[in-house]
């Protein structure tokens, strides 16, 4: 007797997280599931995957995507009772996702009409429940459509309709399914999805409680999350050796550590102080001589970050790569790891005197104090960069700068304060003062370093956490509170991040080879 080939009868079903390559299929699926409603945009789905990949699921059946669901984490108590879909999803981009939140919020489930009644929707809901258990979340909350309500709108209020569905007197393909999945109705929201004509824009706010939730976990709702920053206003003066440079740098790091700082921030191009003993008159050759000290610079700051237990934003330094010179800022974490950010916009002066090449990557770095970004001097004058960094999760933007006059300094300062307001983010600027009398194109400096906050109740008066006296050798130390920042983004007097008209305009980044 010949053995039966079982494989030809198999029907493979896979539930997995969504990937970038799935986006075109998902957009096509939406059109089949919700004709007449505004479909997902590619950039929205890309933002879901970038912001919270674990919360985006799809079902594959015979190598075809037949169902998907999207979600984010929120602290639901921080949202208004009558919130809308746009509010809870940040207009579909979920950049308000809060990894420290307590509730998984489901924002969409769809199953291909040709494959309904095959329990694919149930599999997606089970994936959400398993995620809530895994992340120890209190509950799953959804705003559910009531797509059969249009048939009864003339004779029933939404509440009456929902009651009849609960009693099984009326069948609704969404609400009936959600009730079977164990969700309980909390209330009915009006104007939830304006383009949902079948539901007359109403939605049922429903919740599934995670009975395995353990309140006593490492994830604590913080009253505050203070971060201490030491911005160093570095005195440029003639030195005779790298050892002289080491002594001056270590002094500042020691001061930052004595204040219990989480970050010590040095200015842009403060390593040009080394040029004062290199005796090279041509600026383009001097920067290449300076670049030979890159390894010594990195070794010094790595050792200081670890020894003094301070994360150091090591200003910026000229680095040679493949024959080109870049202006590069380094992050030296106190655990000994290193990151870097090249200056993206070279000033006319940098191109003229030094032939500086421009970087192409907009980076955001994880630290033990949350996500941060570094934008070197001129870069902070381009608002798109800060917006992209904050969309990637940055809570603090560090701005090492080097300016020779008050006008240049004020451009950096005003733009740093504008970025703090526009993006509900903290910014910190650190500049050089003094002069290098024997170094071409680094003759004199002007700075007033500072730490800035958004402008709203609960933050520093005038949006200034602290600032140095201008043009003196000193530091400023200030505390910024990331919990206060998070709450302001959700419930501040103004909410620039949430209120952006992404339906009207958006920022795109091009892909460059590294």
TrEMBL record:
<dbReference type="Pfam" id="PF00795">
    <property type="entry name" value="CN_hydrolase"/>
</dbReference>
<keyword id="KW-0378">Hydrolase</keyword>
<dbReference type="Pfam" id="PF00583">
    <property type="entry name" value="Acetyltransf_1"/>
</dbReference>
<dbReference type="GO" id="GO:0016787">
    <property type="term" value="F:hydrolase activity"/>
</dbReference>
<feature type="domain" description="N-acetyltransferase">
    <location>
        <begin position="13"/>
        <end position="211"/>
    </location>
</feature>
<dbReference type="InterPro" id="IPR036526">
    <property type="entry name" value="C-N_Hydrolase_sf"/>
</dbReference>
<comment type="similarity">
    <text>Belongs to the carbon-nitrogen hydrolase superfamily. NIT1/NIT2 family.</text>
</comment>
<protein>
    <submittedName>
        <fullName>Bifunctional GNAT family N-acetyltransferase/carbon-nitrogen hydrolase family protein</fullName>
    </submittedName>
</protein>
<feature type="domain" description="CN hydrolase">
    <location>
        <begin position="227"/>
        <end position="482"/>
    </location>
</feature>
<dbReference type="InterPro" id="IPR001110">
    <property type="entry name" value="UPF0012_CS"/>
</dbReference>
<dbReference type="InterPro" id="IPR003010">
    <property type="entry name" value="C-N_Hydrolase"/>
</dbReference>
<dbReference type="InterPro" id="IPR000182">
    <property type="entry name" value="GNAT_dom"/>
</dbReference>
<dbReference type="InterPro" id="IPR016181">
    <property type="entry name" value="Acyl_CoA_acyltransferase"/>
</dbReference>
